[in-house]
Amino acid sequence: MNEAIVATTDGLIRPLYEGPLDIVGDVHGEIDALHDLLARLGYYRDGGHAAGRRLIFVGDLCDRGPDSAAVIDLVRSLVTAGRAQCVVGNHELNLLRGERKHGNHWFYRDDDAEHLQRFGPCVMATRGQQEAFLDFFASLPLALERSDLRVVHAAWHEPSVERCRDASGDVLAAYRHFEAALSRSEEGARLKAAHDAQRVQQQGVLRSIDTPPLLADIAAYEAYYQTGNPVRVLTSGLEQATRAVFHAGGRWRFVERVPWWRDYDAPQTVVFGHYWRWWHPASHASYNKGEPNLFIDTAACGWHNNAWGREFACCVDYSVGARFKERQEGRAGGFHGRLAALARARDRLRPRPAFDLSHRRTCHRSRSRLRHPRITRLLPKLIIRGRLPRRVV
Predict the structure, then answer these.
(1) What is the pLDDT of residue 345?
(2) What is the pTM of this model?
């Protein structure tokens, strides 16, 4: 990575704002939580901030929550005004691709009893909003970078980033280009044929409520297409054949997410979302989507160690997208799923750059210099602010 990053509004990998930032995790249509978080971070209604701070959104603005349209309208207005930047998440990519997925019925105006029972009341997009939102998503980058900091929705995988850096067109054009190349490849055709044959042979197993064995041909095909398309990698991560088959999103899963940050060793800090982290780790068992917990060895607001014990990465998705499940239980507040922001306290590149972890509770500054960011529970309404350890290069 060159020290100087040329400013541009084009391309899929774009320059990140300089100066102090607040990096907001996956919002998933939770407009009230977003308004509350921005107020607690000190932002005015127009997105301005007395200290000149600016907002960065890691994607997945929409789906599952009660008002995705309001979230997108707000973020779009902030981006247009130059007060925020946003990257594409897998949920925005699904809408660009015209894919009907878990929780995006609001966009397609599927206001039926089944969706109402599953997700609760939500605001449907208007016809005008549908077109405007797709235009907005198509205008967004896949990742943002500056000399000391990187932001991506799901995975900063250097080979995939470089392929996207060289791609032409918008996100959807790049996705289609890479997908077509995979389909044309000899390996892709071979894996698809084996996948299709196994799905036909095992259709009874796939429909069963009993956990099936690992179906290797299906797993190989899914991992190949996920990892081979760099747009998929940046928006939904790397995947591999799972160690234990699990059920998520209405079907059996034969691949699992890879904790790529364990192999990440670049000097730039990387902040991302996507992976459903929990403030209280025990909540994972009750509200997860069926996937393994990738953060079982990480403190509630700790940074993630790579294989060499260095802390260069932080996930800011604290599972606010699970609130629809909590509402099904009758919960109206005190949610386990939270909306989080990671706040860069001052513009310094290396010597102990300071970050805050902010969620839906009131902030309190810790005066101690912590070697490792961690939580110290003082009162019911506190957030503790820690410091990122000194860089080890």
Answers:
(1) 61
(2) 0.86
